[in-house]
Every structure is written in structure tokens, then in C-alpha cells.
Automatic annotation (TrEMBL):
It comes from the Bacteria. This is Lipoprotein. PROSITE patterns: PROKAR_LIPOPROTEIN. It comes from Mucilaginibacter defluvii.
Amino acid sequence: MKPLSHSVFITIAALLMSCSSANREDKNDVQPIVSDDYESGLISKREYHSPIDNIFKDVIKKDSVLNNLSNEINDFNQAKIDSLRNYLLFNEESANYYTAGAEATKNIKDSLLKKRILQLLTLSEQRYQKRTKALNESVLNIKNNDTTMQDYYTALKIAATLPVLERYQRKNLSKFQNVTHLDSAASALKNKTKAITEDQIKKLNKN
């Protein structure tokens, strides 16, 4: 007897797996892209949160189109988990029965009777596969559409958040002029330290 829709099981399983501020701030201090107050409610120090997701959560609060789409996707993901999990369990019940039936017939000593029972099981399984064909095709369609949707949703997050990052860069880049000054100071101090050291070495050589 053929295994019952293993590709459907794999497809369903894959789908189910796919779901502080300081009191005083210096005006030159670099602030997070997303405000501290907002981040404090989202970020746990024990967990990694993608900066893309953190910024996107802030962006959709100000964009009703993106917010509505995100809610729809979240609702779809939850419905997908609930529905496909139940269908997976439903399929497993039948698959387990047909497997157990085939094993049980091995205990039948009468060869003709064994053949008749195996035929009954095979016909039943074939009928079941016909009844579930449309559902199994729907599962595969869900997987394909979900994969494409998730690809575009990831691309959307980047397209919506990249401008925020670049505004953050432009706003804060000028605050780092002290790095250039520090570079000059480091060079001058190196030369001064080298000169004094060489002078001390020369004095030792004269003694």
C-alpha cells in the first residue's frame, strides 16, 4: 500500500514552521532609530530582535495601509496554523489506520482472506485520496502563495525601513567630527611621544 500523501504532510509541516532614556540628554548624543520609550516595550535583552522589524513596527504605526496589511498577514498566519494543524491531524488519523491495517493483515494465516482484506484497505485508501485530492491541492497552493507573499513582505519591510535608516544616518553623521579631531590629536601625540622617547634614548647612549 502506498504511503498516504507524504508530500502533503511535509508541506503542512513546513507551513506551520514558517509564523531606557537618560534623565538629561546632551544635544549631540546619538539616539536610537526607534525611540527608547518605544523600544523598552518591545525589546528584551535576552532576545534578538531584527532592527528591520523594530523599525517596521514603528513605521506601520504612522501608515494605515502598511498597518492594515500587517494585521491581515498576521491574521492569515494564525488561521493557517490553526487550519492546517487540524488537517494534518485529520490526515494522520487515516494514514495511521491504513498502516496499522496493513500490518494487522500479516497476522491473517488464510491467504485468500488476507488478500480480500488488503483489497478492502487499498480501495478505501484510494477513495480517501480521491476525496482529499482537492484539499491537498489547496494545501500546495497555500504553500506556493504563502512563500511568494512572505518574500514580498520581507522586501516591503526593507523598502519601508531603509529610508528611516538613511534619515538617521544623515541626522547623526555630523555629530562625529570629534573622530576626525581625535585622529589628528592621535597623530600629533604619537609624534610627540616618539620624539621625547628618542631624545631619552640618545641621552642614555651618551652616558
